[in-house]
Design a protein that fits this description.
The protein has a six-stranded mixed β-sheet, with helices on both faces. It has a four-stranded antiparallel β-sheet with strand order 2-1-4-5, with helices on one face. A four-stranded antiparallel β-sheet has the order 12-13-11-14, with helices on one face. The protein is built from ten helices and 14 strands. Helix 3 runs parallel beside helix 5. It is an alpha/beta fold. 37% of the residues are buried. It is elongated, with a radius of gyration of 24 Å. GO terms for molecular function: ATP binding. This is ABC transporter ATP-binding protein. Keywords: ATP-binding, Nucleotide-binding, Transport.
């Protein structure tokens, strides 16, 4: 199946000399939810801006729906939705009029039924006659999503869609985004909330200093880079790690009462190793009084990649 978005060698250098994107390659599949993670200044918003025609690239190519974005910008842009990070909209407009107007901007005929459906799906229908400025921050962000959906985009960018939204509203918006995918929309989102990517994304990409350092299926990334860390508190200090445990990646703390294991590959091997270690300790007559075990989360992997503690693989 042809990818819905294909980016090759994309670069962006601003007038002051700052390079925001450094030869980015990225392929997005039709119908997936793709989460792009990265720290502030990593290039997430610049990348989105380049695809949506808001930022002029310095080099590289962008193909959307199999067509060259630069050559066919006007027709392709009408098929792309964008929910920006900033709440940039006419705050004095009533909700219904603002969302309806967005549809007209892309040359589509009025469709009151569709607009009503969008507003109801986002719990905005009861607010349709209120000015946007009177809404809460979470509701304002929903209006941005409604405006982006009004022209029926096939590819939807969400730049920090739940920033500043409370947990309850955030989970409600996750459901709305999943519903968009179920209706056939491909969704690309950037987020600071790692649990958002864990909850929703089919694949995850990590960008650091303008470069894609890894793209993978969420589960594959967890298997490949996940780790188990366990701290075993001993009843009595040890001088050295026993020979029977030498095959495991163990270290002995400075006070000689805590054995630390760091290993595994996210597939369960780490848990199995810890179980073997405790059996070996018992057979050796070494008592322990506590075990503190932790499995890597996507956030742990993200931090390791961003800080360069593990190597990634772009795609």
């Amino acid at each position: 199946m042809q990818p819905i978005l294909e980016i090759r060698g994309l670069t962006k250098t601003y007038k002051g000399g700052f390079t925001a994107l450094k030869g980015v390659d990225l392929t997005i599949r039709k119908g997936e939810i793709f989460a792009l993670l990265g720290p502030n200044g990593a290039g997430k918003t610049t990348l989105i801006g380049a695809v949506c025609g808001l930022v002029r690239p310095s080099g590289g190519t962008i193909r959307v729906f199999g067509e060259d974005m630069q050559a066919n910008w006007r027709s392709l842009r009408a098929r792309i939705g964008l929910v920006p990070q900033e709440l940039a909209t006419d705050m004095f407009e009533p909700v219904l009029r603002a969302v309806s107007h967005s549809r007209g901007l892309f040359g589509l005929r009025p469709d009151p039924g569709r607009i009503e459906g969008i507003l109801k799906s986002l719990s905005l229908w009861e607010k349709r006659d209120e000015q946007i400025r009177a809404l809460s921050g979470g509701m304002k962000r929903r209006v941005l999503i409604a405006k982006a959906m009004a022209h029926e985009p096939q590819l939807l960018f969400l730049d920090e869609p739940t920033a500043g939204v409370d947990v309850e509203l955030r989970r409600d918006m996750w459901k709305q985004i999943a519903d968009m995918r179920d209706r056939g929309t491909t969704v690309i989102l950037t987020t600071h909330y790692i649990e958002e990517a864990e909850e929703m994304a089919d694949r995850v990409g990590i960008i650091r200093q303008g470069e894609i350092v890894m793209v993978d299926e969420k589960e594959a990334m967890m298997r490949r880079l996940g780790r188990t860390e366990a701290h075993i508190t001993l009843r009595e200090p040890l001088l050295v790690v026993p020979e029977s445990l030498s095959r495991f990646p163990l270290t002995l703390g400075s006070e000689r009462t805590v054995l630390t294991y760091r290993g595994g590959d996210g597939s369960g091997q780490g848990k199995a190793d810890v179980a073997e270690i405790t059996k070996a300790l018992t057979l050796a007559g070494i008592d322990y009084i506590a075990i503190d075990q932790h499995e890597s989360s996507l956030e742990d992997i993200f931090v390791d990649l961003v800080e360069g503690r593990v190597a990634g693989a772009g795609a």
